[in-house]
């Protein structure tokens, strides 16, 4: 298959982890006779520096006509003082919104070699396997007005959702639960927020169409607590934008490191944007120590969700797992008796673990 892939490395560690994903994808393409054509475009702080905007028109255009988009990370202290509407994060929010990517899938899957990296006890996290389905284009992130008033002494943000916006993400939650272990936890704050009460109505209504799915409602504060006490009770969590943002960072460390987690932002057709859950980590950028696995696993999600390349995606995930089993890890992880390697070496090890060694060796040497 021939696919056009847009790469948006962004800021901080974005560039180095994106190079890693490209190398892995090239290895997979060689092995399976695909042709991946990469086009790089600017987003975030680096786009502000070059074009004066975090989301150049040209980037949106390129993404809209591509088969899929990979994104590194955006933001950094350098742009902390630019006006709110021009912050690097606006680039990310803008591309999600303009591509209509309303569903953000964040799988939290443990690798057995990493259970010791978790801040929680092994018996609590071992075997935990959660999918967070986060609404991505509504709620407090996008509601208007969002502004200071009365000489800056009053502030207003707006939490707005339409019923349709709730329905389509809740549908995604049920769909995902049916493909997994059949349990859906809907997270809201229905004891306080009207939007949450409507959310609950939508979930209950949809539940009647899916009697085979076990549905539970949890308030977001309780959900945050239960994620720590007994994460294995969760299968699919469906929730609105801000709650999903917070819970997915919390859930990510259950399995060892935020650096490991991939995500897919999708809509009803195939196009999607794939990015690691972690941020741009400007403090470690350019030092060859960032964990590339969240980005590489995001590339695997792209192959599966946008291109229907199940085997290729499995292969990458297996190679990541084998690399960790082999004891190789970046500094953010902890594997007993393992060896800390840099970003590039980690990528090289993953490529070596892909099945066809001869091709991967050739690509590996050109990458290094
Ligand atoms: C994420 C990030 C973004 C978000 C930021 C960078 C705007 O935290 O993808 O989770 O809040 O959605
Ligand atoms: Mg976040």
Topology record:
Blueprint: E1 2-10, H1 14-32, E2 35-40, H2 45-51, H3 57-64, E3 68-73, H4 88-98, E4 103-109, H5 122-125, E5 129-135, E6 143-149, E7 154-158, H6 163-179, E8 183-188, H7 194-209, E9 214-219, H8 220-229, E10 236-239, H9 241-252, E11 262-266, E12 272-276, H10 293-305, H11 310-325, E13 328-329, E14 339-340, H12 343-353, H13 357-367
Helix pairs in contact: 1-10, 1-12, 1-13, 6-7, 8-9, 10-11, 11-12, 12-13
The chain binds 3-isopropylmalic acid and magnesium ion (MG).
Structure description:
The protein has 368 residues and is an alpha/beta fold. Mean pLDDT is 94; it is low at 357-366. A hairpin with a 5-residue loop joins strand 11 and strand 12 (272-276). Helix content is 42%, strand content 21%. The longest helix has 19 residues, at 14-32. Strands 2-1-3-12-11-4-5-10-8-9 form a 10-stranded mixed β-sheet, sandwiched between helices. The protein binds 3-isopropylmalic acid (IPM) and magnesium ion. 3-isopropylmalic acid is lined by residues 75, 89, 92-93, 245.
Short description:
With about 375 residues, this protein is an alpha/beta fold. The chain has helices at about 15-30, 45-50, 55-65, 90-100, 120-125, 165-180, 195-210, 220-230, 240-250, 295-305, 310-325, 345-355, 355-365; strands spanning about 1-10, 35-40, 70-75, 105-110, 130-135, 145-150, 155-160, 185-190, 215-220, 235-240, 260-265, 270-275, 330, 340.
């Amino acid at each position: 298959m021939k696919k056009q892939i847009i790469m948006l490395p962004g800021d901080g560690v974005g560039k180095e982890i994106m190079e890693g994903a490209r190398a892995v994808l090239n290895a997979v393409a060689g092995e399976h006779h695909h042709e991946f054509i990469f086009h790089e475009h600017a987003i975030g702080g680096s786009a502000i520096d070059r074009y004066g905007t975090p989301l150049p028109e040209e980037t949106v255009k390129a993404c809209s006509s591509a088969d899929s988009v990979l994104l590194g990370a955006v933001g950094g202290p350098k742009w902390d003082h630019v006006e709110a509407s021009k912050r690097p994060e606006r680039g990310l929010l803008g591309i999600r919104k303009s591509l209509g990517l309303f569903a953000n899938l964040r799988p939290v899957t443990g690798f057995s070699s990493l259970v010791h990296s978790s801040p929680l006890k092994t018996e609590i996290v071992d075997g935990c396997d959660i999918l967070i389905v986060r609404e991505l284009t509504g709620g407090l992130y996008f509601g208007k007005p969002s502004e200071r008033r009365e000489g800056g002494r009053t502030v207003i943000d707006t939490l707005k959702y339409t019923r349709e916006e709730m329905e389509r993400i809740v549908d995604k939650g049920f769909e995902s639960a049916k493909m997994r272990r059949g349990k859906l936890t809907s997270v809201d704050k229905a004891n306080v927020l009207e939007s949450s009460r409507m959310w609950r109505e939508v979930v209950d209504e949809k539940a009647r169409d899916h009697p085979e799915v076990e549905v539970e409602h949890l308030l977001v504060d309780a959900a945050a607590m239960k994620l720590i006490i007994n994460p294995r009770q969760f299968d699919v969590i469906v929730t609105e934008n801000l709650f999903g943002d917070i819970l997915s960072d919390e859930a990510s460390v259950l399995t060892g490191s935020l650096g490991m987690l991939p995500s897919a932002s999708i809509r009803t057709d195939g196009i999607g944007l794939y990015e690691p859950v972690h941020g741009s980590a400007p403090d470690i950028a350019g030092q060859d120590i960032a964990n590339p696995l969240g980005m590489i696993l995001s590339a695997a999600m792209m192959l599966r969700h946008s291109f229907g390349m199940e085997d290729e995606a499995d292969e990458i995930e297996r190679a990541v797992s084998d690399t960790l089993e082999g004891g190789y890890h970046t500094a953010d992880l902890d594997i007993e008796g393992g060896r800390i390697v840099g970003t590039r070496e980690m990528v090289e090890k993953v490529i070596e673990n892909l099945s066809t060694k001869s091709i991967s060796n050739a690509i590996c040497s050109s990458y290094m």
